[in-house]
Design goal:
The complex is a heterodimer. Chain A is an alpha/beta fold. Chain A is about 40% helix and about 20% strand. In chain A, the strands form 3 sheets. In chain A, strands 3-2-4-5-7-6-12 form a 7-stranded mixed sheet, with helices on both faces. Chain A has a 5-stranded mixed sheet with strand order 9-11-10-13-14, with helices on both faces. By secondary structure, chain B is an alpha/beta fold. Chain B has a single domain, classed as Thiamin diphosphate (ThDP)-binding fold, Pyr/PP domains (Rossmann fold, 3-Layer(aba) Sandwich), CATH 3.40.50.970. Chain B contains 11 helices and 7 strands. In chain B, the strands form 2 sheets. A 5-stranded parallel sheet of chain B has the order 1-2-3-7-6, sandwiched between helices. A two-stranded antiparallel ribbon of chain B has the order 4-5. In chain B, β6, α8 and β7 form a beta-alpha-beta unit. In chain B, α5 runs parallel beside α6. Classes of the chains: A alpha/beta, B alpha/beta. Chains A and B meet through α3, α5 and α6 of A and α5 and α6 of B.
Chain lengths: ~350, ~350
């Protein structure tokens, strides 16, 4: 995608797209500040740099792009205090694994502040916490913990898969006024894509990445790209798989998923997170409660992510796994149909 | 102070206390309001919670759930908050009634909250442990030890960034200094030179365990100094001493000198929660502590200053105020079930799926 297909479109990396959204929002709203470790030099993944490589701190100053101590509790706790005192902070947790050092501040303070105090205040903040396997980073830098946060009343949970979405969803998160858990994927930072400046997304709206008729694959974050490869593979066998990118896990686009489920009759939910108690279980249960579609889940085994490639790969969901799961579902649905329904 | 009076001064001047006596009377009035509130809350909470092997009463209490009383610690709240403005921001602990009253909240709306009524500050969603009045800068009591400190430094950072002429204050207990956010927040405040006063309300006990046995080194002040936050200790049952020290520290903070820590030594008259008798404490220690009750000490000073009548007036006013608060709270309507779905989130609208 070197030559933009839309007038005024830019081709940016996923990291640059997020930085562009943040910079535009900061330019427009002096209440928006960002705080976290190593932000001054542009963030550890370059997601706080302008597209020309210049750190955002150069443009906005050290009081609005704040370098902080390695103090996760206070990065998030201070974010709550800033929000209550009239700012709109973005708090950067570096990787989601470190956000666990601030779980009280996220779950007990940010998420509950508004309700607990009877609506006297709102913790309007965006907590960025990159998820996902980051090659050879082992068990404490590779987790996908989105279901920890979808479980918590008061939080919005967002998982962008493309540069365009990282741009438009970060804008939406900053504008929402709610505490938003914003999960970028660590192996998508360098991925390039087209976006139209000024484009906006609605939180809670999914996207049909490719239409299909035989089965639906529901996913998010980096797995959107893996699922698309699986759909290519299935297409070669004459199986038409629809791929849906949820984009936002809370609220999530039930209408889109249930409509597709009713149409194709078979839904595979796949995610990079551990399958047990993953958000896929919520999606699958909802489909089962509301449609006659057959549902299945495909997530990682319940093992920590290993360092060495043969171990790490056991935690990865590859296109072949997804294709195999869809095929199995098609086979079994035919069995069920012939055996019981007819 | 009214020592030797020149005998030629007209008699009417004797009825006009000097400024320090007036200040003490104001501090006293705040303390007796807090005491009246805590005593009333204690009585109406009996039977409202299961704990320490006791069953909840068959006749449910008007105030339910754990109620952490600050009885005996009134001088710290009164002495510090006397120097705060409405625009200053405050975070508190689970033992936060006194801080909230001293910061300017209305006792009736507070009592309504304890009674779980819709007219409470939190619409019945928070209760005692989350008492708050954002309109006077009181950003909330907190159910998690040390959780208020990071919030206070963030609030202070926002005030500084926005160029507002206000400070943040965080009350916390001696137990909190053993949690990580204490160290993080103090270091943070020092790093950014924030306008924040940390107040360690040291009642010498962490829930039901003496803090001394659980704390290494020299405690709150030494830990603060180690990260560059100047700290001063005070007799937290001497309301004038607390007030004088708070005045000095707050003046420095307002002048841009950065964060300060005030370490006030006090004592919790009651158990950890209202139905806890605190029987695990040494009776001698309790007797000695009760003899140092900040209200009794202040009252003696007022009597010496010839302000017995005014002190008595403050006590009667406090009782009348809290009686009215109780009466109002008991007849106030409860929230309706549908209110449980409000104030959660704006994005999306589902709570089930």
């Amino acid at each position: 995608m070197n030559s933009p297909t839309h007038a005024g479109a830019l081709t940016l990396t996923y990291a640059q797209a997020g930085a562009l959204a943040l910079a535009e929002a900061m330019q427009a709203d002096s209440r928006i500040v960002a705080l976290g470790e190593d932000l001054g030099r542009g963030g550890v993944f370059g997601q706080y740099r302008d597209s020309d490589g210049s750190p955002l701190q150069k443009r906005f100053g050290p009081e609005r792009i704040v370098d902080t101590p390695i103090s996760e509790s206070t990065i998030v706790g201070a974010g709550v205090g800033m929000a209550l005192a009239g700012l709109r902070p973005v708090v950067e947790l570096r990787v989601i694994d470190f956000a666990l050092c601030a779980i009280d501040e996220l779950v007990n303070q940010a998420a509950k502040n508004r309700f607990m105090f009877g609506g006297q205040g709102r913790a309007a903040m965006v907590a960025r916490m990159p998820i996902g396997i980051w090659t050879a980073s082992a068990a404490q830098h590779s987790q996908s913990l989105e279901s920890w946060f979808t479980h918590i009343p008061g939080l919005v949970v967002v998982c962008p898969a493309t540069p365009a979405d990282n741009y438009s969803l970060l804008h939406a998160a900053l504008a929402s006024g709610d505490p938003v858990i914003y999960m970028e994927h660590k192996e998508l930072w360098g991925s390039r894509g087209e976006l139209v400046p000024g484009g906006r997304a609605e939180l809670g709206r999914g996207r049909v990445v490719r239409p299909g008729t035989d089965a639906t694959i529901v996913t998010w974050s980096r797995q959107v790209h893996v699922a698309s490869q699986a759909a290519d593979e299935l297409q070669r066998e004459g199986i038409s798989a629809e791929v849906i990118d949820l984009r936002t896990l809370w609220p999530w686009d039930k209408e889109l998923v249930l409509e597709s489920a009713a149409r194709t009759g078979r839904v595979l939910v796949t995610h990079e997170a551990v399958q047990v108690s993953g958000f896929g279980a919520e999606v699958a249960a909802t489909i089962a409660e509301h449609t006659r579609a057959r549902v299945a889940r495909l997530g990682a085994p319940r093992i920590p992510v290993g360092y060495s490639s043969p171990l790490e790969n056991e935690s990865r969901i590859f296109p072949g796994h997804i294709a195999a799961s869809v095929r199995k579902m098609l086979d079994s649905i035919q069995y069920v149909k012939s055996g019981h329904n007819e | 102070m009214r020592g030797a009076r020149p005998c030629l001064v007209p008699l009417w001047e004797f009825d006009m206390p000097d400024p320090s006596a007036t200040h003490l009377l104001a501090l006293y009035a705040t303390m007796v309001r807090i005491r009246a509130f805590e005593d009333a809350a204690e009585i109406v909470s009996q039977g409202g919670v299961q704990a320490w092997g006791q069953d909840a009463s068959a006749t449910p209490a008007l105030v339910k759930g754990p109620l952490h009383l600050s009885t005996g610690q009134e001088a710290v709240a009164a002495g510090v908050c006397a120097h705060l403005r409405k625009t200053d921001l405050l975070t508190s602990t689970h033992r936060g009634h006194g801080h909230t009253l001293a910061k300017g909240a209305d006792s009736t709306r507070m009592m309504c909250e304890l009674f779980g009524r819709a007219s409470g500050y939190n619409k019945g969603k928070g209760g005692s442990m989350h008492i708050a009045d954002f309109s006077v800068g009181m950003l909330g009591a907190n159910g998690v030890v040390a959780a208020g400190l990071p919030i206070a430094v963030g609030a202070a950072q926002a005030l500084k960034l926005r160029g507002e002429d206000a400070i943040a204050v965080s009350f916390f207990g001696d137990g909190a200094i053993n949690r990580g956010p204490f160290l993080e927040a103090l270091n943070w405040a020092a790093v950014y030179g924030l306008p924040v006063l940390f107040v360690c309300e040291d009642n010498r006990i962490s829930a039901t365990t003496p803090s001394g046995d659980m704390t290494g080194g020299e405690g709150a002040g030494a830990r603060a100094e180690s990260v560059g936050v100047a700290a001063r200790r005070v007799d937290g049952n001497d309301v004038e001493a607390v007030s004088a020290l708070a005045e000095t520290l707050i003046a420095g903070i307002r002048a841009g000198k950065g964060p300060r820590l005030l370490h006030a030594l006090t004592y919790r008259h009651k158990g950890h929660i209202s139905i806890d008798t605190g029987a695990y404490r040494d009776p001698l220690e309790v007797r000695q502590a009760l003899a140092q009750d900040p209200i009794g000490r202040a009252r003696k000073r007022l009597d010496v200053l010839g302000l017995e009548r005014e002190a008595r007036h403050a006590e009667l006013d406090a009782k009348a105020e809290i009686d009215a608060a109780l009466k109002a709270a008991e007849s106030a309507p409860f929230p309706v079930a549908a209110d449980a779905y409000e104030d959660v989130i704006n994005t999306g609208h589902g709570v089930w799926l």
